[in-house]
């Protein structure tokens, strides 16, 4: 061992450690920066309200507007799509992750009611027009709401009219049409076990064909070359002729509101159309969570969700119709994306859906191998 | 073959700095009775090692085992009573067996293909010398750390309807699914096998050549058997990754090619069937556990069975005879890696009518209100980077402690067994479903351990979850370096009076420092792209980049899908840059240097 060798080794060690030290320091700085800005770990204060929502909610904007309107410091957290949000609320029942929730639709609503997750509540200023959508706490019409409806829309088959005109083929209009040989290989459906929009379409077919007939209908669809995608965007943006460059399916499961977003620049025409005889109603609910740290604040946020001020923003921000019928709908909606009439849709009650859902999916799995 | 005794470099062979004081009770006592260091420091050493073990253990117990076991336990209790009725029920269903069969089939095929394609890649990247090699090293790793959402989207854009390869008719087939699974894993094989290969003593192969064996024959009969342990260990790892793959299988596989992981997701998220999910989680534990055991066996066999050189021989320039390997490697890099990524980039630059546009990128800077973006994507990038930095710091700190603990070679069999268990525990986060972890954290982190605040809605939980995912990678990168140190050097230092701290500071840590850059880069990139666990955590205003990609791609607003593709390209580019920087940091812990110290490769 020579001193020279030793010093070389030590020098190498220092050199080797230098970037490490630097990087660790950077990370340390980032760590303090991050924990410093992390909200939510402060002890709960009475003037803070947390609202948990599904993924497609305009979080920041809402937080600002709602804070101003309610006087509370409103914080919004996302918790996944409708199904994921519901299950998180059920799993944390009693020790909720927030004070209020929004965005559970009629496919999952009964799951919340059955698991006793939400507090019965009825906003004082609730618009009359929304009462038919409410899930009532008791038998009477003026009973509290088990869940408060905020907006509604419909899942419908959408088509590309130009494609049919070009092919000289009549446009389909009903569920039954999709199974006809002339529409072979033209439809993109959604896997109801993976997509809530797909589940909504499934509910429509159960409502239309009955618990004994819906599976045969799905079988006739897949036999007719329907393609089943995992998610709405895979179908609409991946397969639909009007959804993307080079799409090959002119028929797709989407929403009644979708044609409002395929209008041309002059807003004189929409390149897509929803088939109003193939629709299923979707209602999105809000509510106060049982065990909320700030119950009064949660109620104020639910009040705000059904207030005229917020209801006005729903069409543009969430592609749904507000429960408040006095809200004027955007022009493009009225023109190109009319709502199906109330007696035109194929619906089931939330508790019927909750009871039957798993069995239908199983039946479907056995029939078409989903 | 004689057992391997890695020859240390001449400098490190020198005993460490002589003690500048302190207790030197255990002087040289003769070679046969080397004693453990001074008893005075012994108590400190025990305390130190205990702490080094306890800290990561506590982290794993609190943030991993407790949540996961809690969720699984929820599935096995009914009104507070244990209920195992779900076990026969779930295993009685034919679908369960189909799903398990699919899992094994996909992972097996992917592992085999990854090995076939990874070996030429290992040869080209580790045995040949050519300009741009370091760049290729870094680029090859990008697929490994790209978020699976992006991989899924890229492959469906490539093979699906209207994709450039639609004519092959492979859309919706097992083939595309397996290709997509192989996509990130060729790098795993190339790194594992390549770093081993580079240090393989090729004198036996030379001898075979001298005796008249042809190139191919010499390779098949001498080199290939020597590589076998590394190959097997790499295959086991790829199998592990693929058998727990989530995003890729969900997007490309649908219900038809469901694996255990996506089935757990569906049962939990769609059906709230925690009983079924718990049983499948157990099945997954079994598959992952078995793979880990096999992989550990193979790795140990690899660590001692072959003659390795410390310094790699100088790599040679590519010659004519290397053409087949270069050909296969180029095809892999081009068709498997470049084409899906290029498709993604091109699609992000097209508008609905087929024209070229950068509108999707412009949207990221100034998001319209209808897009599900809380803030411009720059904000999400900043947040992702901060969170990933914290996650990487946690993973690196704990990973170093774990690697140090695992690198010791205790003599007591009990301790050795405990060490093996610890090793397995550290690897387990690789094999546990992100849904199970995410939902488990949700039910346990409400005022955990009597703390006064709710961790579930705190942004703190995100880096913690990401660190859990990155931790096994860090350990596997650092561990071989430490295990490569000849135990006799530590003994020599100790006999000369170095305290355990001095031994650590002068022998282990400097070597660790060299690989720490790579480990940090890897864990940083892995955290940056982490989607599964992050997306299951509830978060206040905390939209990381992969989560933003996921939300954009699934949103109804016009232009949202295109913006999602553009955000995916941004994420991929960011990851690539980080991996290239980490790749530069790797060698000798110095920028730009090109040494031959290749122990610190991945796994």
TrEMBL record, chain A:
Keyword terms: Signal
Signal peptide stretch: 1-37
Annotated InterPro entries: ThiB-like (IPR005948)
A Pfam family recorded for this sequence: SBP_bac_6
Protein's UniProt keywords contain Signal: yes
Species: Leucobacter muris
Protein name in the entry: Thiamine ABC transporter substrate-binding protein
TM segment ranges: none
The UniProt record lists the keyword Cell inner membrane: no
Domain of life: Bacteria
